[in-house]
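Hi team,

As requested, here is the filled-out complex form for the pyridoxal-5'-phosphate run. I kept the field names the same as last time so the parser does not choke. Let me know if anything looks off before we queue the next batch.

— J.
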Amino acid sequence: MTAVKSAEADRRPNLFHFTRLPRPMVDHADGIYLWDRTGRRYIDGSSGAVNVNVGHGNRNVIDAMKRQLDRVSFAYIFQFENEPAIELARGLAERLPNGLDRIYLVSGGSEAIEACLKLARQWAVATGQDKRWKIIGRMPSYHGISLGALAVTGDDVLTKTFDPIGRPMPLVPAPLVHRDHDNLSMEQRGVRYANMLEEKILEEGPESVLAFIMEPIGGAATAALVPPDSYFPRIREICDRYGILLIHDEVMTGIGRTGKFLGGDHWSCRPDIVALSKGLSSGYAPLGALAATQRIVGPVLEMGGFLHGHTYGGNPVACAAGVAVLGEVDRLGLVANSAAMGELLRGELEALSARFPFVADVRGKGLFMGAEIYADPWPRSHCRKASTPICGSSIWLSNAD
Ligand SMILES: Cc1ncc(COP(=O)(O)O)c(C=O)c1O
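And here is what came back:
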């Protein structure tokens, strides 16, 4: 979306955002479109922050939220159960694979990551493994903006300023296999990158390592990076060998975005803990969740409970939105639609790549696609070898049309 200087922007002297870029004043939205106050219409090509999975203005979601608002808008989760939260947990457990049926509700992606990290640590303590506290992440990666999430994020620009007050964790290279110049096949490269995790575990001391966190398909930091198939089973094997938990960050890739319910479902992955948000409420309310197996949650609850909680965790209105979104994902067949429309999008992007040599490495799954834009518009053979990508561009579309 092009930032448009508008008189409206000058009328907010008290509000600040992460950049000073002027932006249009939104007025209303419907399906894949947003309108600003001047009547200009925008295609929401990025689907908001890659979260409006069911599109804008969905009547069923809005009505479900209104019904919930009429009943009760807030009841503190420490004091009351609420039906939408129970139903949302049930709905997620039914759709998630491999025993990921214990759900903890929060209000966003970074909160979901914080909850994952803390649950992992508490599991270690509850099972007599107090020495395990290191959580290995990948470079580059993005897991959120709060201090805990930044500690496992591989992005120097975002993290360096805050390193002194956080606790930066070890990182291993993300499998940017398409940039490697060796004689290995893609599958061999996948194993080689996974093996870097084992090397890091040995370097850090296996008894100190608690978990490995990764985005199954890369998001903001790597523009829909899809590792070779061989990467996933090898990562699981290494985690099992050293008793390390595998955390999948599906904040961006979850809830059908990639043409499967979870990104990791493309490889039948078996993570121990999964973080969800974004598409879970599709932008209708702040909502996030972690899903874990009973093996992890059981000892923590037996020990006395999860030392975690936010005022708005399990909020009834947000959960009503989540339940309705899951219903719409099913009713409209949006997971299959993402797979089908993604193939169409891939074809178009590949055609662009064939036409413009600086557009390279079209990749992704479903409506979660990325490409790399190279600085020098040279022939592709040169491009790959001689030039560094200036950015990984991602294209994300809402599923709503
Ligand atoms: C993979 C991933 N994890 C975590 C987050 C953080 O989510 P939030 O912005 O809701 O805090 C994001 C946000 O873009 C993300 O893409």
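Two things worth flagging: Residues 49, 108-110, 113, 142-145, 215, 219-220, 249, 251-252, 277 surround pyridoxal-5'-phosphate (CB under 6 Å). The longest strand covers residues 389-396.

Thanks,
J.
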